[in-house]
Fold:
Amino acid sequence: MADDPAPRAKKSRLGKWTRRGLITAGVVTGGALIVGVAIRPGHRAPRVKELVANQGESLLNIWVKIAPDNRVVAIVPHAEMGQGVHTALAQMLADELDADWNLVDVMEAPAHDEYANYALPRGFLFGDAQIPRALVGTVDGILLKLTQAMDLQITGGSLSVRATGAHGMRVAGAAAREMLAKAASAAWNVPVRELVLAQSRISHAPSGRSDTYASFAAAAAQFAPSSKPKLKNAEAFNLIGKSVPRNDIPGKTDGSAMFGIDAQLPGMKVATVRSAPVFGGKVAVIDDAETMRQPGVQQVVNLGDLVAVVADGYWHADRGLAVLDIEWDNVGRDKVDQAAIFAQFERDLAQAEIESNGDVEVDRGDVDAALATAARRIEAEYRVPYLAHAPMEPLNCTVWLHDGICEVWTGTQNPLGARAAAADALGMEPDAVIVHNAYLGGAFGRRSVQDYVVQAARIAQAVGAPTKLVWSREEDIAQDRYRPAVTSRFRGALDQSGRPTVWMNLYVDKHEPAEAPRIPYAIDNQRIASVASPTHVPFGVWRAVDHSQHAFFTESFVDELANLAHEDPYAFRRRLLNHAPRHRKVLDAAAEKAGWTHPLGEGRGRGIALHESFGSIVAEVAEVAISDGALRVERVVCAVDAGYAVNPDGLTAQMESGIVYGLTAALHGEISIEHGRVKQSNFHDYPMLRMDEMPVVETVIVSSGGPLGGAGEPGTPPAAPALVNAIHAATGIRVRELPVSKNNLRV
Structure:
């Protein structure tokens, strides 16, 4: 299967900078930042006006335009995949602009270099740090060039609100507000300080004048926006912090919302594909005689590592693919199975322990001495399987090559990346590729990889007509980029008082984020390390990335330490968080809402877990009932501190969504390898959480006023450990391998 292409080393006709170009131009040299006016982005709106503004609309900066009817349009550089990002980011912009929310619309930013999202690395690198006013333009310019070189317009990492919102949307709204005030001041010949901007109108009380933003928009657009306008304090917010209605919901309820799979073009053909079932395999021999006899089938396209059947419709293509006879060269990997992979992990972990050669990331205190003098010790090993993303909308992409350009209709988490991938696949310049990004019917990281875009482009090129590629569910399960299978080993110890003194953790295969296996608890002696143990199974970013597995490992082992200490798991955690008041407050909020101290009946149990990820702290309490080995999750209480809830309903919805995703994986999720390929094929053997399995979910928002945290992913990591800790409380059975369905829960 084609991989997501690496960023290009050349410079496009639009003058796109590469990483090498940035360095050789002297922007970054010798580890020092060289400040220069030339790198500043300047007033970018004129360069993109033709892309985003219709006749009569005024583009004040690249993120906001105002129409003649006084409607404000927020131009958002993120994909809407059900997380409500279009609403939250527009909300942040509109608040700083003092716009009437009823007059605010949203459009997604085009896949164009000027919309490379420099706010993402700015938020990631600098957070809430204040950049000196004189350097803001230069810093933004450097980051813009970097993101352009990387084709970065990504939606992921729970960065949309805390990076783009904080450093892009709010700044754009505040800058546009200042520009409108300047224009009104000039038109009315009055001081700016006497003007009041509210609800998309500008008023001047001394003279009794009042008019709409639209009346001043054209004049305001002549000013260059400030790169560091004055932002509101939280006390002045009118929209941020309120549960305003989501703007994507009406279209999704009445059927008018457009997803990538809805693309329709005159004369369009439909293709579906089968890739080498053993990862890395190639086509050896094809017999397509029976396929070409099927009704509606037009063509069979051999791309080397996959074969496409092109037909008049999806059903015809699917039926043609079903009878296609393909022999594969499996490059010697068809003997690998899941047991062998876990055995490899065991060998590599054991070797690392013997040779003490793991990649150490935390080394605090003296774990060996503390272990030698400990009153009580414990060891545990945990496993998680590979997991697929399984978004409800199957992967799809429509490509039309015509008049020297390539048009792409799809749903992708990175439109600029899709543009670059299609251009590379076709040997075209990026500016000759136009990406029409639609709503995404789920993604969870899968649509950040552009393999399906590359396939669609290559197939359309071979067909010579507009072609829609649609993956089957079986292809989606068998050809994902998987959350990795991982084995993680722990050793811990307690002193005479029951306080933990040692935390040792060695696991296979470190990915991102780096902090995922680290714990917030006050344990003096810690060693956390990893060892590489690569397999042929392709890796992909999965919702919450490494946090999803490490929270299961660490919060399960914390519970085991509490049990060794004969202490309540909540109280045990709480006394280790005296140094971390935000964590402790979230833990308390979850326990209190769940009624932690209220006893449950026989066969019932509560489990608690706490984990910080993507800038947010989340604690969850799961409540389960088990009878004759049958498990039911009845209730989950979630407490979240995301710093400040931009849209409380949206934050609550994302916590619920993350819990559903986490419970699905914990209860059922397993991708296993057999003969070098994925054994599972569809929802019958890779099941989702069903409606009749759904627990009651209650969410408590803890607003600490700290830095903004993410929402899309932090609800997922605590779900699995809270669940298995509840199972232990109910039965005494400690689940150390997921999914739970593999374990016998009969007492």
In short: Residues 1-39 have pLDDT under 50 and may be disordered. The CA atoms of residues 363 and 527 lie 5 Å apart. The radius of gyration is 27 Å.
